[in-house]
């Protein structure tokens, strides 16, 4: 915990400097500090003169940028964020800027200040083991901390140049988005960046704009699967079970009341119009339904096997399907969820947005997940299960499905190659192991 608190303090100090000094200013500032260190003894060398010159340059530019900040008008803006972005696919969004004040606004740059979630100590420890590439990274951990912060932000936003705006004038600028990790990017603040006359110091003036959020969908990892059955099955509760609980069937026609008909089936509008009870007739529904089960029992956020499993699930969700079929996504978050897409119940984007914000759960979450799978297995035509390990609990659950005549497709995503057990011979043709290197996550710029 002490190390994590120190990391947060160091990162905030580093960000404070990067938000107030340009690249040239950072170099000059480092040289000034170095000169001041070697120039403590003014009789030994002339380094103190370099320290004085560097300090004067920085102070003069800081005074100049302070004057610019006091005279800068307050701008108004409106973001036009896309519905979502996908990891690895660059995108852009537009920002409308208006100068409502009586003074003209000088040329400046527009910069987003993204919300920054902070990791826990346990999450950082596991992530450090996954991304550390050398002894320093593994022992110290600060580079992994910076890397994890970038992934928690979700995206990186470039700056955009804003032209000079006269009073009441508006303009539109485009900002580039680089999605780097799935999640939900927060846009709490927007600022214009003013640079001093010497180009060393800069300041940020907040822009009046509302907050925004941008879902970052996971990358899609292709998966080779055997042909999937598409036969139709009776859904006893009707299609309404795809979104909520309750008996429901597809409406077929209206008819006269017969003794014994339930009152809830009366069509009250027809009753009022015709003066006699009219009953709604329904028919049971038959349609093709498929289940995608995603194991979320990962040890820490951004675990390579977990991210690979989510990417595989994203690819399976995005695959084209028959218009008359449904896809159930079964996973564990705060509880077991069973979300359905297809047949006007929702499109694939809904399920992909869920995958974007999915977080690891504890190891014992696999029990409720498998229980839900077995309870609804008779309603689906096919099952694809993506597991993060292959243990006795998962093996026995698959054996029970096979005993009921249900043949699922099981994909086991692991970080190390495990030799097949002797008992795995019974799962030939349905079990496939996928090995993900421990450092499979892409290395981000630090």
Architecture overview:
- The chain has 446 residues and is α/β, with parallel strands linked by helices.
- The chain has 3 domains: 216 residues, Sandwich (Immunoglobulin-like), CATH 2.60.40.10; 34 residues, no CATH class; 150 residues, von Willebrand factor, type A domain (Rossmann fold).
- The protein has 11 helices and 20 strands.
- Strands 12, 15, 16, 17, 18, 19 and 20 form a 7-stranded mixed sheet that branches.
- A hairpin with a 6-residue loop joins strand 9 and strand 10.
- Helix 2 packs antiparallel against helix 3 and helix 10 packs parallel to helix 11.
- The radius of gyration is 30 Å and the shape is flat.
- About 5% of the residues have low confidence.
Stated plainly, the CATH topology of the largest domain is called: Immunoglobulin-like
- Mean pLDDT across all amino acids: 84
The number of helices is 11
Number of strands: 20
CATH architecture of the largest domain: Sandwich
Radius of gyration: 30 Å
CATH class of the largest domain: Mainly Beta
Defining traits:
446 residues, alpha/beta, Immunoglobulin-like, Rossmann fold, 3 domains, 20 strands
Question: Summary?
Answer:
It is built from eleven helices and 20 strands. It has helices at about 1-20, 25-40, 45-70, 120-130, 135-140, 140-155, 270-275, 305-320, 350-355, 365-375, 390-405; strands at about 75-80, 85, 90-100, 110-115, 155, 160, 170-180, 185, 190-195, 200-205, 210-215, 235, 250-255, 280-285, 285-295, 325-330, 335-340, 380-385, 410-415, 430-435.
């Amino acid at each position: 915990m002490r190390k994590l608190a120190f990391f947060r303090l160091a990162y905030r100090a580093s960000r404070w400097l990067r938000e107030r000094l340009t690249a040239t200013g950072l170099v000059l500032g480092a040289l000034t500090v170095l000169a001041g260190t070697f120039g403590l003894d003014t009789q030994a060398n002339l380094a103190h003169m370099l320290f004085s010159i560097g300090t004067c340059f920085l102070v003069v530019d800081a005074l100049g940028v302070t004057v610019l900040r006091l005279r800068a008008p307050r701008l108004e803006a409106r973001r036009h964020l896309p519905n979502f972005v996908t990891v690895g696919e660059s995108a852009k969004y537009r920002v409308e800027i208006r100068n409502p004040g009586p003074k003209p606004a000088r040329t400046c740059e527009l910069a987003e200040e993204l919300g920054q979630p902070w990791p826990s100590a346990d999450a950082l420890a596991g992530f450090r083991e996954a991304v550390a590439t050398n002894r320093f990274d593994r022992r110290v951990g600060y580079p992994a901390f910076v890397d994890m912060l970038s992934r928690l932000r979700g995206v990186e936003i470039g700056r955009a140049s804003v032209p000079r705006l006269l009073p009441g004038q508006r303009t539109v600028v485009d900002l580039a988005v680089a999605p780097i990790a799935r999640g939900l990017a927060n846009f709490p603040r927007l600022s214009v960046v003013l640079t001093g006359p010497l180009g060393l110091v800069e300041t940020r003036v907040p822009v009046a704009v509302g907050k925004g959020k941008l879902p970052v969908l996971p990358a899609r990892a292709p998966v080779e699967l055997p042909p999937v059955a598409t036969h139709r099955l009776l859904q006893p509760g009707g299609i309404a079970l795809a979104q909520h609980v309750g008996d429901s069937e597809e409406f077929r026609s209206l008819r006269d009341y017969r003794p014994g008909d339930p009152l809830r089936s009366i069509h009250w509008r027809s009753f009022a119009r015709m003066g006699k009870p009219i009953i709604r007739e329904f028919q049971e529904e038959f349609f093709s339904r498929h289940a995608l089960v995603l194991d979320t029992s990962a040890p820490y956020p951004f675990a390579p096997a977990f991210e690979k499993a989510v990417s595989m699930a994203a690819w399976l969700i995005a695959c084209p399907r028959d218009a008359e079929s449904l896809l159930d996504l079964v996973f564990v978050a705060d509880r077991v969820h069973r979300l359905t897409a297809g047949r006007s119940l929702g499109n694939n984007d809904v399920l992909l947005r869920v995958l974007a914000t999915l977080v690891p759960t504890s190891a014992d979450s696999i029990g409720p997940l498998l229980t839900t799978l077995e309870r609804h297995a008779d309603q689906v035509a096919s099952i694809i299960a993506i597991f993060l390990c292959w243990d006795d609990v998962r093996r026995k659950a698959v054996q029970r499905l096979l005993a009921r005549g249900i043949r699922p497709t099981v994909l086991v995503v692991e970080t190390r190659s495990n030799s097949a057990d002797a008992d795995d011979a019974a799962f030939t043709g349905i079990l496939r192991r996928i090995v993900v290197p421990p450092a499979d996550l892409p290395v981000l710029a630090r």
